[in-house]
Amino acid sequence: MDLYNRLKQGTYIIAEMSANHAGSIDRAKEIMHAAKESGADCIKIQTYTADTMTIDCHNQYFNITDGTWEGENLYYLYCKAYTPWEWQAELLAEAKKIGIDFFSTPFDKTSVDFLESIGMDFYKIASFELVDLPLIDYVASKGKPIIMSTGMANIGEIQEAVATIQKHHNQLALLKCSSAYPALSSQMNLKTIANMKEVFGVPVGLSDHSMGSVGAVTAVALGASIIEKHFCISRAIKNPDSTFSMEPAEFQSMVQDIRQAEKAIGHVNYAVTEDEQENIIFRRSIFVVEDIRKGEKLTEKNTRIIRPGYGLKPKYYEEVLGQTALRDIERGTPLQFNMIGTL
To answer: What is the pLDDT of residues 237-254, one digit of tens each?
Structure first.
């Protein structure tokens, strides 16, 4: 995949499936079809097992005590959330069949090797793995494009991760991200997108965990070229990601808003647009507002600056006052220079 060329074609919109398949490959395929129909350019999955992420341990370090997953044990949370590896080649084939891009987030070297074996075209680095420089180096060594989320990372950590990737000359895009589930709009700091583009010199987008589409559309207006949103068939199908995922109608509405925002952003242009051209007549201009006989002077009483715009531009008003009518001029006539002068 040529990531940079693809981003020139418009905002690249990724539907993150994550755990929303809720353990069903048929539902996973349903999600893919619904994402395609809702306007997504790409579907993303995650490639891990509980054992590649953590260990089966129940002491205080491995039990989640607050947030979206409060009360869960880390190992068993990943047991519930993971996408079985035996599905993934089939899901990749399904994506090619329906015409939607497909990529994954690997979380260790074994998952990278597996994804290479099934022909993965590009990769995602998750926010939580941004500090795992050995993993990032291994992913980058495969020479594929990389999209990397930056949630929780300070600028020094992002610089280290970017430098690790750039050693291998991969195409790279970064995603601004607030790694809270769901994220609060007040904590998204979307102005960072423009600064990230300037500092790192790569395309920047948004991995959006907030509810609704305001954050995504605002990000596009601020220069984001990628939007990633968690996607589900229904939040009623409970799983570790359902509470902060978008349903198809919501996702479709977001995509439509993004496409409208792209049109509104347009390009730098000071020319009159085609639609504006017909309204130029409603500008103000200089009109004769009382009948003027040949030889009479033009005054503030018999001329005015009014709408419509068929007469001389208002900037000439001081110049025409005091000049002489070269012919009779009827009330309601737009004033022109050939009507006035010196007798």
So the answer is: 999 888 889 999 999 999
DSSP symbols for 29-85: HHHHHHHHHTT-SEEEEEE--HHHH-----SGGGB--SSTTTT-BHHHHHHHH---H
Report pLDDT for 272.
Answer: 87
Tokens standing for residue 102: 């497909």
Tell me the domains of the chain and their CATH numbers: 3-265 (3.20.20.70), 274-341 (3.90.1210.10)
CB atoms within 10 A of CB 42: 22
Residue 266: Cβ within 10 Å count: 8
Pairing mode, strands 42-47 and 12-16 = parallel
| Global pTM value | 0.88
**Whole-number Å distance between alpha carbons of 81 and 86:** 15
pLDDT at 300 over 80: yes
Q: What is the DSSP letter of 220?
A: H
pLDDT tier, 182 (very low <50, low <70, confident <90, very high otherwise)? confident
